[in-house]
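Input/output pair, single chain:
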Amino acid sequence: GAYVRCSIGIAPNRYLAKVATDLQKPDGLTFLTPQDIPARLFTLELRDLPGIGANMERRLREHGLREVSQLYGLSPKHLRAVWGSIWGEKMWYLLRGIELPEEKHERRSIGHSHVLAPELRPPAEARLVARRLLLKTASRLRRMEYFARRLSLSVRLENGPRLAAEAECNPPARDSFTFLDMLDRLWETLSPDIGRRRVKKVSVTLSGLDDETQAPKQGDLFSGAAAPANEAAVKTQRQKFDKISSAIDDLNRKFGRDTISLGSTPQQRQNRDTGTKIAFTRIPDMEEFLE
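Output:
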């Protein structure tokens, strides 16, 4: 049957495990033990180390560094000066098998984009893909316990320009109902420029994030929406939308993606194409494959 070939590296830290993975391809299983360090590393070229590309190799050579053994012999302070950044100092620890704690970055946005297959490029089909991407994004938002103040929609036309629109949400929201209403309004805003032209790519982004402790509990709905008569009604409506959206998340995680979907249900191809993929720049959480 079908299978995927892979190489596996096992080492004292993730950085050296990546180095080990590249030592034997394909179908390799390579161990780098503490006893192998640093001698095993000294057999490598500078470019074999993750984080050293053509430009960095040139920079290292300008400092008289042509071998891994020379790099290994420098102090953390010296490596930082050579690199011109904190990454040089980190290399000192990584090459010695020391696992560094992950840096926590303040998240500013959550979004998804997709380059459409030819049969999904008519505007009506592209709109359904945008809705599915937004539902996925909203589910991630709730799982990560954020509220969003802004929704952005980007549409790249086939052989044409990129169109964009955004709407504010006050107070910030996290339920799918509010965001889908906003998306419908944004798409209508772009519709005159889209016309009948085919859509190559769609992107949706939720930004202006607040965590649950920061998000205000009352206020008006997003600008332009039909607001309930008073703030108490707004709060009640938002709480109801939150509970329904979270319940749908739970059911989809238990029984599979799109077991329950709001509004138009994407066709099989749309559903498959908007599934989670492992990108070069980001490894998704396991939960994303169920959203």
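Confidence is low (pLDDT under 50) at residues 218-228. The longest helix spans residues 231-255.
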